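As a warm-up, study this chain.
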Amino acid sequence: WEVPEEEREEYWQIRIREVQGAICVASIFQLVVGYSGMLGFLLRYITPLTIGPSVAMIGLSLFDVAAMNASQHWGVSIGTIVLMILFSQYLEKAWIPIPNCSKGFSKFKIFNLFPVLLTILIMWGVCGICTLADVKDPAIRTDGPK
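Now compare it with the structure written out below.
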């Protein structure tokens, strides 16, 4: 399917608007379910037995893409897996002190709350440092091939 150059941007913008609208509708639905108390009612019917196969199907359908991207640079892939396992399995009960107005310090379980985000930030930082060090491997650079 060939799209003329002058129409390509219009098609792209239409698709992005559709995705934005879907995200807005899903967010509003999530707010309504959360604030109305329907979540407790729905959880009687939506059990782990229902959610497990759905998550498995999504994961298996994304395996090809993940395997292709992981094979680009094995060092980054293994580092990501190791950090994810470390944060989510071994450091989940670890906490860092956060200053608090009333008690002085409170415990913040950052590894329990944000293992995926921390892994992404750390590995992107490692790739960013490699980019600044002018590593020639395009798979590890944050700015693409040079």
